[in-house]
Design goal:
It is a single chain. The protein is mainly beta. It has 3 helices and 27 strands. Strand 1 and strand 2 form a beta hairpin. The protein is globular and about 60 Å long. The N and C termini lie far apart (about 45 Å). The N terminus is likely disordered.
């Protein structure tokens, strides 16, 4: 199916009509040696990702639902954001407002009783039915025409292309503003459990080893997780993963994740090496592994921060998929049962001009498109 006409003058944009796929929950599966991944058009969402464990058995390491319509039900209840693209602006916007060229925009404040915007507003990209543009054995591309939804300025066309190659998943999100300056910051919002719930220890990610060698700063936040404008140096603190460390080692001392919260939900800045550019993709910025399956995931990206969320809010009410049920009783997702890794720019950077992030977050029809690129490579250890 073809997307709506992409190149239009400003006078014609008002007449554009967003197209969607007939069945937003139809699965599109792509595969390559050592990897198999499935997606649905609803949110351009990853639903399954299989890789082999240390014993050669395929394991599904992404959380979600077996029944596609359950994602919609979740969005109307828990709204967990299992596996979609989030946007037009991922993460949080302070007070749901920002200013570009003296024009102030107000976005629905859908979190913390109306004090901030999360993941693009009340109905973000995760709840939109995207169009399937192209699909074959190893790649699938979705598109979404955002006609100024949720109060964001201007119209934006976005393509999400997912590709697998041997033992590797590559995600490329390309957003093109059609008529006005606008902030754009997308992210994939995948919930990972590399242990795939294969045994009791793998029901949480606490014994997973996490390594982020270029992240020795985090963005300071208040008690509703909105940036304060401070940048915090973290070596020697519970947030220090510049050397490999099990996630559970210091998690009970990690208390900067919102009111009455213990765990990780923080934006880790990527301070790449001196001779590597700010958006260089030549460095592995994160490695994570599970001792239970031996599955290791390595990440490269062009983004300048990683939001790490250790599933502090999960409470055992959501069952894991059939592919992740390994015992005689039904397994549910417990607290710390997963970890989200969002590749993105600095959160709320549009309201912090002193950070120098505006050039990476505000785009116009005359600039290059906004591109979020991430590559996840899987291997086994142990």
């Amino acid at each position: 199916m073809r997307p709506s006409h992409l190149l239009a003058t400003s006078s014609a944009v008002a007449g554009l009509v967003a197209q969607t796929t007939t069945d937003p929950f139809q699965k599109y599966t792509i595969s390559a040696p050592g990897i198999n991944a499935s997606f649905v058009a609803y949110g351009a969402r990853l639903t399954n990702l299989y890789v082999n464990d240390k014993n050669g058995n395929p394991q599904d390491v992404a959380l979600g639902y077996d029944n596609g319509s359950a994602y919609r039900t979740n969005d109307l209840t828990y709204h967990t954001y299992f596996g979609p693209v989030v946007g037009r602006y991922a993460n949080r916007i302070k007070n749901g407002t920002f200013k570009i060229d003296e024009t102030t925009s107000n976005i629905p404040e859908n979190e913390h009783y109306g004090h901030d915007t999360l993941h693009g507003g009340t109905v973000g990209y995760d709840q939109r039915n995207w169009t399937v543009v192209s699909a074959n054995e190893t790649t699938v591309t979705f598109s979404f025409l955002d006609l100024g939804y949720e109060g964001f300025p201007g119209n934006v066309i976005t393509y999400a292309t997912y590709t697998v190659s041997p033992y590797t998943w590559t995600s490329r999100l390309v957003s093109i503003p059609l008529d006005e300056p606008t902030p754009i910051m997308l992210a994939n919002h995948v919930y990972w459990n590399l242990g795939a719930f294969v045994n009791q220890e793998a029901h949480t990610i606490l014994n997973n080893t996490l390594y982020m060698p270029y992240s020795d700063r985090i963005i300071g936040i208040d008690n509703i997780e909105v940036p304060t404008g401070t940048l915090e140096y973290i070596p020697g603190t519970p947030w220090d993963f510049t050397s490999p460390k099990q996630i559970g080692t210091d998690i009970l001392s990690a208390n900067q994740c919102g009111y009455d919260c213990i765990g990780y939900d923080n934006a880790f800045i990527l301070d790449r090496l001196r001779y590597s550019a700010p958006e260089s993709t030549d460095l592995t910025v994160l490695t994570m592994s599970s001792p239970d399956t031996g599955i290791q995931m390595s990440l490269t990206t062009n983004q300048q921060s990683l939001q790490i969320y250790s599933c502090n809010g999960q409470n055992g009410s959501i069952p894991v998929k059939a592919s992740q049920q390994h015992g005689t009783t039904e397994t549910f997702v417990p607290k710390y049962g997963c970890v989200v890794i969002e590749t993105q720019q600095w959160i709320d950077g549009i309201n912090q001009p002193e950070w120098g992030q505006l050039g990476y977050q505000v785009y116009t029809p005359m600039t290059e498109p906004a591109v979020v690129w991430g590559q996840y490579t899987f291997s086994t250890i142990g």
